[in-house]
Amino acid sequence: MAAGQAGSAYEKVALLQQGPQELIHAFASLADDVRGCRLITVSPEVIVLERRFVPIWAYLVVPIGIAMVVLELSGAKAKQVENLTVTFSEEDGTTRVSAAGVANRALADALDGLLVEPTTPPSSSGVPHSS
Questions:
Q1: What percent of the chain is predicted at pLDDT more than 70?
Q2: CA torsion sign, 112 to 20 to 37 to 29?
Q3: Which has the closest alpha carbon to 91: 34, 33, 30, 18?
Q4: What is the SS3 string spanning the chain?
């Protein structure tokens, strides 16, 4: 289990061109890339990204190594779990992805990279170009 800092609130909604199954595979790959993160499938439309870690403060509270060993063997060490729920819904040929929960910086950056909405070219004004 990795040591780390607690995440903060994360919320984002994006409309993407990929289908829900393709996006779920992308999120599974993302979960593999972020340390301590795993993907839990709740339903075909909902997944949860879960991150388990030992908070840094847990290592600072115990001043001597022997106490750490005793805590480790007793299973009494502090653990923290953060969840981020991602929901997929199809809308007019696109997939609406809603992500809400808690994410650390690494997970938030990975999500931001994945949830980039495609840019559409500006519509023409209908004015002919002169040559």
A1: 68
A2: negative
A3: 18
A4: CEEECCCEEEEEEEEECCCHHHHHHHHHHHHHHCCCEEEEEEECCEEEEEEEEEEHHHHHHCCCHHHHHHHHHHCCCCCEEEEEEEEEEEECCEEEEEEEEEECHHHHHHHHHHCCCCCCCCCCCCCCCCC
- Please give the single-letter amino acid code of residue 66: I
pTM exceeds 0.70: no
Token output for 89: 């819904």
Q: Is 15 left (phi over 0), alpha (psi -120 to 50) or beta?
A: beta
